[in-house]
Amino acid sequence: MSKNVPQEIEVRKLQITGGSTYVLSLPKEWVTQNKLKKGSSLVIREEEDGALSILPPEMGKPERPEEAFIEVSPKDNPDALTRKAVAAYLVGYNTIHVRAKSQQQLHSRQRNTLKTFARRLLVGTEIVTDTSTELTLQVLLSYPELSVPSALRRMCIITSSMHKDAITALKGLDRQLAEDIIATDSEVDRFHLYIIRQLKMAVQNPRIIKEIGLTNPRDCLGYRLITKTVERTADHAADIARNILLLKKRLDEKAVERIAQMSELAISSFEKAIESLFKREFDTAEDIIERTKEIISLEEEAVLFSRETGMEEITNARLIIESVTRATEYASDIAEIVLNLTVESIIG
Questions:
Q1: pLDDT for position 177
Q2: Ramachandran angles phi, psi of 43, nearest 5°
Q3: What is the CATH number of the domain that holds 169?
Q4: Torsion angles phi and psi, residue 12, rounded to 5
C-alpha cells in the first residue's frame, strides 16, 4: 500500500493472464460482505468521469420505490388528497394506494377528483383498483420508454403551437380556438409532472441518469429549471386565450400587428433556445439572449396602438402584451441555462 494513499483506499496491481485478459483481484472482505462466491456475476459500469464501478448484481439494477399508502377520511378535501397522491408520484412511487380509514368509504367526490386528475395529468399512470374503500394508481411507464429530452421536446412543441394559435385567435377573435388553447395547457402540465418525477428519481439514484436520457448529474438541475420555464411559457399562452375571451371586439389592427411581431420573436427565440439545449450550442444560446432585447420597442408600440381600441379593452390588451413579453423573457432564461450547461465548450 502506498504511503501517500489514505487507509480506506487500497491499491492493487493489474495482472494479465492468457496474454490478452487483464485481471484485478477483489478484497476478500468485500466479496464476503456481498455474499459473492466463485462464478458470481458482477456489474461493471463506466462512469461519466471515466472511473469504473464494480457492483453486485442487485446494486446494478435501478432502485424501484416501494408502494405508497395514503389513508383518508370521507371529510378530507379532495384537492388536498390529490396533492398527496401527486407528491407520491413525483418522488417516484410506482404504486399509490389511497385507502379509507377505519373501514370507512371514500367519498365519491374524492374518488372522482383523483381519477380525473390521474387520467389527465399523470403520464403512464393507470387506475388498477377502484372500489368504495380503495383507489390504486399504478405507474406503468419505464425509463427508456419516454426519456426526459423526449418528454421536454413534446412539451415545447405543444407550447409553441399554443402561442401561435393564440395569435391566430386574437386576429380573428376566435373564441372557440381560445378555449381549445386553454384546454391544451393540461397536456403541457402532464409532461411537466412526468419530467419532475424522472429528475427527482435520478437525484435519489444517480445510476439511472443515463437511462432517463441525460449525461451527468448537473443536467438534472438544468432540465428542472428549463421544464418549469416551458410550463410557465405555456401558462402565458393560456392567459392570452383567457383574455381574448374577455374581449368584446377586435383590437386595433396596428396593435394586433405589433403583438403578432412580438409573438413571432418570442416563439422563434423559444424554439431556438430549446434546440440550442438539445444540440449543446453555446453560441446559439448567446445570440438568443441578445435578440430578445428587440422586444422592448415592439412592446412600446403595441401598448401605444392598443389605446386606439377603446378604454374598455385596454386592460385585456395590456395583459395580452404582457404575456407575450414574458414568453420572450422565458426564452432568454432558457438560453442562459443552456450557457451554463455548455460552458465547457468555450473554455480552453
A1: 97
A2: -100, 125
A3: 1.20.58.220
A4: -125, 145
